[in-house]
Specification:
mainly beta; single chain; Porin; 18-stranded antiparallel beta barrel; globular; about 5% helix; about 450 residues
């Protein structure tokens, strides 16, 4: 496992990649050797710059830099009944193996927050230990690390009017998610969670990004961002006699730049050019690569109760020289002190990491709601839908949806229990093979504690 922290710092914790599911033999992803040398160099340069500037500022002007640091530990214990722990059709699972199981999970987590005049930094890391009743050999450790640092104070000293946000997230799990649910969305969008539900396999994902801006005038600025995303696959747990769908190791680089104009106190319009390049490799298959170029307009509206982001434009897929409409909408609404609602939808060119390689025209929609029924009781729910087609030739289609609801009871301010139900569906249709469908349900009871 390789845990990512702000400024590109990495800490290698584990060793081999051929024993990924054992409690006693966790895993280090081998993709760390595949990263571009210059990307590593830029990360190390940024780390050195931040440390040097912070140190010099602390020595020369310590009286003016006041840091606020918090360490927030938490732990979650859960038990769930799952109808399909392989995330696959019955025909792909060895005969005599049960699809359903009872799964016990313990997830300790720690969050580190630090805020001063130079930077606002957050690091959250957790490890999940999972044990199974029917399929004890599936027991595994999962890991996740999410980090970001808002460096406005630092870069403005070097270049007045400049702002910078760097972020990185890492996850290892043999249960790759189709959608990201719960919590705040990451600063850099995850291109690997747009509705493709892969079979059970050890997967690694790392998304690093930087977003910057420079104020030309009071209301006009230039904005740019860059992201580098990797997806790697280790051991497969599901395989049919005919082979079946496979995963594709994927690298994605994306950058954009353009002017941004603040119209009013809460409204901003941005015009940007965006370039994306992807390459893939899969076991026993040819490699894939594609490049897209897009021109997009983004309009952000903010009030005290809600925020709306509208994006629209066109994307050119160079393979096939085809143009596609792309864009999205995000609406976040604080209806009152007890109710929060968020609705989003997007259409974009995304990588196909499972079933086939290459580009997908990906359409997604999601909705989440939180409502506090009383001081000790809250209700939350979410729904997600995705429909994707291969491009430029529409050979395969993917459809998935998931709904979930949770009732939470607060025993104390730090301790709560919850009951969650979830239903999901994933289907793949291809003229080259028989279609398959994967329905799945689970019911989960959890006990959570968080010390703030």
């Amino acid at each position: 496992m390789k845990c990512a922290f702000p400024f590109g710092t990495t800490i290698s914790l584990l060793e081999t990649a051929n024993r990924e599911t054992s409690f006693y033999s966790p895993v280090i992803p081998l993709w760390c050797r595949d990263s571009f040398t210059w990307v590593r160099g830029c990360r190390l340069w940024l780390l050195a710059l931040v440390l040097t500037e912070a140190l010099s500022t602390g020595l020369n002007d310590a009286s003016q830099v006041h840091a606020e640091t918090k360490v927030i530990p938490s732990v979650s214990l859960s038990q769930r009944y799952d109808t399909n722990v392989f995330f696959a059709p019955r025909s792909f699972v060895p005969s005599g193996t049960k699809l359903w199981d009872f799964v016990t999970t313990a997830t300790p987590q720690v969050e580190f927050l630090n805020k001063n005049q130079l930077a606002d930094t957050s690091i959250r890391a957790g490890v999940g230990a999972n044990a199974f009743v029917n399929n004890s050999d599936l027991a595994f450790f999962s890991t996740n690390v999410d980090a970001y640092s808002k460096l406005d104070g630092l870069v403005s000293r070097l270049l007045p009017g400049a702002k910078l946000l760097v972020s990185e997230s890492y996850r290892y799990t043999p249960e790759p998610p189709a959608f990201l649910t719960g919590g705040k969305p990451p600063p850099t969008a995850d291109p690997f969670t747009r509705g493709l539900q892969g079979f059970r396999a050890n997967t690694f994902a790392n998304i690093a990004g930087a977003q910057g801006s420079y104020a030309v005038t009071r209301n006009l600025s230039v904005r740019g961002d860059y992201s580098y995303s990797l997806f790697r696959v280790g051991t497969f747990f599901v395989q049919s006699s005919a082979g079946g769908p496979t995963f594709f190791d994927t690298n994605i680089q994306r950058w954009s730049i353009g002017p941004s104009l603040r119209l009013t106190r809460g409204d901003t319009i941005t015009l940007k050019y965006q370039d994306t390049h992807m390459n893939q490799t899969g076991a026993g298959t040819q490699g894939f690569s594609f490049t897209t170029r897009a021109v997009l307009a983004e309009y952000v509206m903010k009030t005290s109760d809600w925020t709306a982001t509208l994006t629209g434009g066109g994307t050119l897929l160079e393979q096939g020289n085809d143009m596609f409409a792309s864009g999205g909408i995000v609406l976040a609404w604080n209806y009152d002190r007890s109710t929060k609602l968020q609705v989003s939808g997007s259409r974009d060119i995304a990588p196909a990491t499972f079933g086939t390689g290459g580009a997908l025209i990906s359409n997604t929609m999601s909705m989440s709601i939180e409502h506090r029924l009383s001081k000790v009781l809250s209700l939350s729910g979410n729904a997600n839908y995705a429909y994707s087609q291969t491009a430029p030739v529409k050979l395969q289609t993917f459809e998935s949806y998931a709904v979930a609801g949770s009732l939470r009871y607060f025993i104390t301010r730090q301790i709560s229990t919850s009951l969650t139900y979830s239903y999901s569906f994933f289907g793949l249709t291809s003229p080259q093979s028989a279609p398959f469908e994967v329905p799945r349900q689970f019911v989960m009871f959890s006990l959570d504690a968080k010390w703030e």
